[in-house]
Specification:
Largest interface: A-C, 50 and 55 residues
Largest sheet of chain B: 8 strands, mixed
Oligomer: heterotrimer
Shape of chain B: globular
Number of helices of chain B: 14
Radius of gyration of chain B: 21 Å
Strand order of the largest sheet of chain B: 6-7-8-3-9-10-12-11
Low-confidence stretches of chain A: 273-278
Mean pLDDT of chain B: 83
Helix content of chain A: over 70%
Order of helices and strands of chain A: HHHHHHHHH
Chains: A mainly alpha, B alpha/beta, C mainly alpha
Number of helices of chain A: 9
Radius of gyration of chain A: 22 Å
Helix content of chain B: 25-40%
Chain lengths: 278, 337, 309
Amino acid sequence: MATNRLTRNGIAMTGLVIVAFYLAIIVVSLFWLPFDPVTMDTQHLLEAPSLATGHVFGTDEFGRDILSRIMKGCSVSLIISIFATALGAVFGTFMGIWAGYLGGRWDHWIMRVADVLFSFPSLLLAIFVMSILGEKTFNVVFAIGIVYIPQFARISRGAILTIKSNEFVRAARSNGASSSFILFRHLLPNILVPLIVQVSLSLSVAVLLESSLSFLGLGVQPPAPSWGNMLSGARKVMVIAPWTAIYPGFAIVLLVLGFNLLGDGLRDILDPRLRNVR
Amino acid sequence: MSDESILRVEGLVTQFRTEYGLVKAVDGVSFELRRGETLGLVGESGCGKSVTNLSILKLIQSPPGKIAGGRVIFQGRDLLAAPEEEVRVLRGKNISMIFQDPLTSLNPVLRVSVQIAEALQLHHGLGKREAKAKAIEMLKLIGIPDPERRADDYPHQFSGGMRQRVMIAMALSCDPDILIADEPTTALDVTIQAQILDLIKNLTARNKTAVIMITHDLGVVAGMCDSICVMYAGRIVERASVDDLFYDPKHPYTRGLLDSIPRVDRAAAYGRDGPERLYSIPGSPPSLVDMPDCCPFHPRCAHAMDICRSSYPPETRLEGSAPRTVNCWLHVEEKRR
Amino acid sequence: MIPVLFGVSIVVFFLVRLIPGSALEMYMGTQVEATPQQMEELKRIFGEDKPVPVLYVEWLGRLVRGDFGYSLRTGRPVLPDILARFPLSLELTLFALFLALLLGIPQGIFASIKKNPVGDVINRIIGLLGLSLPQFWLASLMVLAFANSRGWIAMGNYVKFTVDPLKNLQMLFLPSLAIGVGLAAVIMRYTRNSMLEVLQMDYIRTAKAKGLKRRVVIFRHALKNAILPVITVAGFNTGYLLGGAIVIEEVFALPGMGRLALYAIYQRDYPVIQGIVLVIAALFVLVNLVTDLIYALVDPRIRLDEGRK
């Protein structure tokens, strides 16, 4: 039993370490980058990775240092993902809480709206929203955020419904507490657990969505580096310069894995039901 | 009832490793079961009765549980030492078990006839059609109306009492030597309880099937069993025939249990200053984690002596209409005198 | 379900109109100014002469009759173009689902019955890894790796199933795999967790007490119960596969619906955008419905209660 706790913590810890690593890179990138990520350098196009030239991950089709671009792109991707998830989480949770708490017709209609959003495959919805809002980097936050609203709404509504009928809510009501008071003091703490897990997992998907959008040219616009648009540019040249495709891809995979590990590990730790299941 | 011993449990020890420590759920349990005998295993929740029986069939989940010692002799073999395959062959065929909650103990996505027929196909080598026919027969035997049609139904389409009958049919389908009934009526309505118990009694009498009846309800035991073992904190504290136990209980715990049964005539006999309070044994059962060497009942016992706190009382043989033992320092003293 | 579809159509219609750079403007571009009459005519053609709600109702009416409008770029009717590409997208999705189930379920079962803590952790990490791979990256790497093997990569030389089934399957194998890997990871985890939960159930203990062989207990008793939530998850995610196909189709240059949608968005061809988004969303809802039906069929508790009514 004791070893089980440790491995579960291990998974979450590994995830946390990975995420912390990326956060550290962001901090570092604010002060120092090996090379300028944006300026083109026609002297050094598509150079293979080598410690001698200082281009540890090589250069891309415009001569820009890949490592620097990855580091810079880190900030962009993570910030977008965090904001998008926050947006979706806040709006979605808000919707879900009110739907669950009010019940009846409110519940019905609010969830219909969520269902409509839910009917679109997430990437499609994000692409669709981007095409409406315009291809500005900032809009990616909205596009991805909107995708998350129904998911958070469902989770928070579900959590609210299971505890709504609990005695302590009735008790608080009989003491004259108002709806919003009950909501925030009593119900919110109880839905924190599934929400936290969902946030972590949503962050991982957000990174994937943002890279996909950038890959398709509908996300972060060049010359600003995003791992997605780096891979898009790499498509033409990767046959002769595979490093342009490999490193940015790894950067994505590792970060997404980190968030997934964190979310999964947290779920194990926080979900009492799963505790006794090996 | 012959004197032939069909099952002998000797010094069974089963432990569970938990985050709080080592739980000795069964700590040295020994008893003997004779052919055709109905043995009652009585005790409060958590005293180890269910674990004892799961251990007999080696159905303990390991980890976190572990059968740490003892022997279970059946058909001349020690089941605990035997390889899993040998024990598996016996399950359902020679030793069957029925469980407390018939709703969760039956597979919700399999038809009832399939669940009964499985055992027949496996143990008696019956073909699919024959097994189903026999299953329908069993359903008729246990009193399910319209058995041909209901055989194709699923567990959730039966009522609680019916489901328990199905469990019984499943368990008895292969004519086992021993039936272990783990609180078969606890989850059922009182009116249904009597029916189920009667059913068990009738069916097992026919084939002289021995029964181990686990329960916390002394009323059940009184009607069904030939002899009784009283368990407390993972050990057997008293063993006697039904009559001996009820009319002359020796262990303070047994006496406490019997006194706890509310009785209409007692209130009338003792009422002086008003309604008599219902008796219950003071205190609560001990935690089974890292139990020290003492009599586990001593904190709640009105007759506790110094020696009870420091070592576990040995088994004392007493006179009785059937083999009779008790684990209590009181009776060790008496015998010495 | 119907109100949801309505909602979807409203969203699609109105939002598409919000796309900056209306088609009319693009058509005009840098052209010479048109006379007012010509403008009137153009506006009528491009549908900008009536208030929007009226346009919506008219559009809805045409939809029901199967008239999805005409592509602004090619002038061809939208619906037939979409339907022509539907078989490929369907095939990709089904193939991906098949591969995902094939990979995920056995792995999930295996992970739930093996009592090896180290192996279990490794299994989970691999599962999470499957979820973490960006599909377009995986697809790009596949194209890179198989660039020289003509049979495995279509790259514009797509062969239909009806023409040559084997070659078709060979071509779609890699793209389906790229799509399916993520789903396989999800299925594996759900299968594993579901099996673990089921194996703790009382009826499994009963089955063991009957002396049934381990294999029988796992497959006949446990799996049949454990598979139910997996059906729901698989069905639901199939809808997502339709979205994932966009990127894969682009990387592998396959002429499916997703690619059509993408290029329509690039080119602001909004009748096509409307049509495809609507079709895909409707399919998504349909798939969910079918999943619910399948679930009801498989779970006797639901099936028989329905029958009684």
